Amino acid sequence: MRYWMVKTEPTVYSIDNLKRDRITAWDRVRNYQARNYLREMKKGDRVLVYHSSCGDGTGVVGEASVHTVAYADPSQFDKRSEYFDPKATQDQPRWFCPDLTFTRKFVAPIGLEVLREARGLKGLMLLRPGNRLSVMPLEEREFNIIVSLGENCAEAQDAR
DNA sequence: GCCAACGTTGGC
DNA sequence: GCCAACGTTGGC
C-alpha cells in the first residue's frame, strides 16, 4: 500500500464536496509529474487531502482512498471544456484520473506552520520550497504523523 | 535542442 | 496583489 497527498482549491472542489459525493473522479490534473503519480495509485492506497489558497483554511483537511485506478480523464476529449487537450486522442490519452472515495474529514485543517514544526515531517514534499505539485507521494511514517495530528486536533476540539 | 517569453501556482 | 519558482511553448 502506498500513501499520497492531493491538493485542491476548496472553491473548486473541497473535502465537503467529496464527503457529499462519497466518490469522485480526481480529474483535470494537467501536470506530467502529477499525472505519473496518479497512474501509480492502486486501489486501497490512502490519500491525504490538502486545501490550498484559502487563508485560514489552508492545510490538510482529511483523508480519502483510491477506489479505482487511473483511467483516461474524459475532460481532455471535451471540446467545450477548458481542460480540452487537442493533442489527446482516445487511442493515446494524455491525462488520467483515478476515482477517490471519502474516508474522513479532520475537525480542523492542519496548517503549514504545524506541519513545518512537527517532528518527522522535515522531508515532506509539500514543504519543499517552490513545490507546486498537486499530487505527491508520502512515506507511511509521514502519513501516520499527519493523521495523528488530525486526530489530536479532533480531541482538542471535543474537549472544549 | 536551446532558450526567451509567457503562463500558472500558491504562500504571504 | 505581489512575486518566486517552475512548467510550457514556440521560434530558430
Secondary-structure map with pairings?
Elements: E1 3-8, H1 15-21, E2 23-25, H2 32-40, E3 46-51, E4 59-72, E5 96-110, H3 112-117, E6 135-138, H4 140-159
The protein binds a DNA duplex (12 and 12 nucleotides) through residues 7, 9, 31-33, 52-53, 58, 112, 129-132, 134.
Compact overview of the structure:
This protein is of the alpha+beta class. The protein contains 4 helices and 6 strands.
Protein architecture, described:
- Helix content is 26%, strand content 30%.
- It has 160 residues and is of the alpha+beta class.
- The protein has a six-stranded mixed β-sheet, with helices on both faces.
- The structure holds a DNA duplex (12 and 12 nucleotides).
Mean pLDDT, all residues: 93
Percent range for β-strand residues: 25-35%
Order of helices and strands: EHEHEEEHEH
Radius of gyration: 16 Å
Describe the largest sheet.
6 strands, mixed
What is the count of β-strands? 6
How would you describe the oligomerization state of the chains in this entry?
single chain
Distance between the terminal alpha carbons, to the nearest Å?
36 Å
Helix content: 25-40%
Low-confidence stretches: none
Shape: globular
Biggest β-sheet: strands ordered side by side in the sheet: 2-5-4-3-1-6
Number of helices: 4
Return the structural class: alpha+beta
